[in-house]
Structures are given as structure tokens and as C-alpha cells.
Amino acid sequence: MRFFIDTADLDQIQEAKDLGVLDGVTTNPSLMAKAGITGAKNIEDHYVKIASMVEGDVSAEVIATDVQGIISEGEYLASLAPNIVVKVPMIKDGIKAICHFSEKGIKTNCTLVFSAGQAILAAKAGATYISPFLGRIDDISWDGIGLIQQIAEIYAVQMYDTEILAASIRSSKHIVQAAQSGADIATCPLHTILGLLKHPLTDIGLEKFLADYQKGNG
Ligand code: G3P
């Protein structure tokens, strides 16, 4: 499973990159606002900066919700850098736009996916990625990981090329479960990636190894 980081914060992107495990970045308008990036030109410049920091795909989300608007905004975003993927909402006009982008060879990430039916439609339209929001599903006491499993099974049976990008990850446990459930990618907040490092027995074991070394060599 590949790792994307779900943030517009350049320091966090750099930290994940320095760890050596970063395969890409996803953003959305809320994450841009959280990073203090406002205004169309600043947002564009920020996408270009992010895209230059990583080799993998960087999702840039359209604001338009009508097909023509999504197409022109998406084509513009895709022209900013070769690794920019157009993030399109799961709405009727979004599906039409994804068909268009797919025909033109422009990569897309269909976002706000909450059901297997939506995942099938996005795959049929030719989306490169779909983003099921597993944390938001869990937030309302449904089963986010169950949805990832269901989509993974459908995509395998139907041999769809669309990749499952597990999004709205809330914890390190979600990352492990997404991997187990057949997600191709997990897009994660930095703290959930760093949480994968932690185990008390690792800390205790390392402390003992170093203490024993000191006894013999100190
Ligand atoms: O990028 C979309 C997604 O990951 C949103 O996550 O935490 O706002 O539900 P969250």
C-alpha cells in the first residue's frame, strides 16, 4: 500500500518525505484554509510548490460544481505540474467531467465517496483514484473499513483499474486496517504515519540493548 499525506502544510509534507515513505499528497479546500492559504493565485502557487516537493501524485481539488466549470478548472490545475491530479467531487457533473478527463488522459481523484455504488460509478467513468472517507463514515457509526473491503472486492471481481485511496484516516489503526482491507493507497495525517512507529516493547528493547552494550564497552 502506498502512503500519501493528507495536508497542505509544507513542513509536514517535508517531514513525511524525509522519513522516506511518502508516495504523494492529497489536499482539499479545508486543508488549504487550515494551512492559511487563501486566494486563487496563492492556492495555485501552493499546489505548484507541493508538486515540486514530491515525485508522486498531488491531488488538487476543483471548486466548480458544474461540468464546464469542473473541466476548465481541472484542465488548468492539471497544467500547473505534471504530477497534479484533478480532485473532483462525487456528483453527477463530476462524473461527466471525470469521463472527459479520462478520455484526455488527465488523472483524477473522485472525492467524497461514501458508498460502493458511488465507487462503481467513478470506476466506470475512468477515475484514476477514488477517495472513500472512512473516518467520516465511522464518525456516524457506520463501517468505514467495511466499505473499503466491499469496494476492494468489487474492483477485483470487475477488474477495474481505479485505485482505492483510503481517505479521512483518523488513526494509525485505520492505516493498518486499510492495508489489510485492500486499499491501494492511504492518505494520512502526519501524526497517524508517525504513530505506526510506536511500540513500548521497541523502546524497552532498545534501552536494554544500549545498556548491555555500555556494560561491555563503556
Ligand atoms: O482529503 C479528504 C479527507 O482525507 C478528509 O479527511 O479528516 O476531514 O474527514 P477528514
Alpha-beta content class: alpha/beta
Strand order, sheet with most strands: 1-2-3-4-5-6-7-8
Q: Helix fraction?
A: 55-70%
* Relative strand content: 15-25%
Shape summary:
globular
Radius of gyration: 19 Å
Contiguous runs where pLDDT drops below 50 for at least 5 residues? none
Number of distinct helices: 11
Number of strands: 8
User: What's the pLDDT, averaged over the residues?
Assistant: 97
Instruction: Tell me the major beta sheet.
Output: 8 strands, parallel, barrel
Which molecules are bound besides the chains? SN-glycerol-3-phosphate
Order of helices and strands: EHEHHEHEHEHEHHEHEHH
Instruction: Give the N-to-C terminal Cα separation.
Output: 42 Å
What key phrases describe this protein's structure?
218 residues, alpha/beta, eight-stranded parallel β-barrel, 11 helices, 17% strand, binds SN-glycerol-3-phosphate
Can you describe this structure?
The structure is a single chain. The chain has 218 residues and is of the alpha/beta class. The chain is 56% helix and 17% strand. The chain has an eight-stranded parallel β-barrel with strand order 1-2-3-4-5-6-7-8, surrounded by seven helices. The longest helix is centred in the last third of the chain and has 18 residues, at 200-217. The model has no long low-confidence stretch (mean pLDDT 97). SN-glycerol-3-phosphate binds next to helix 7.
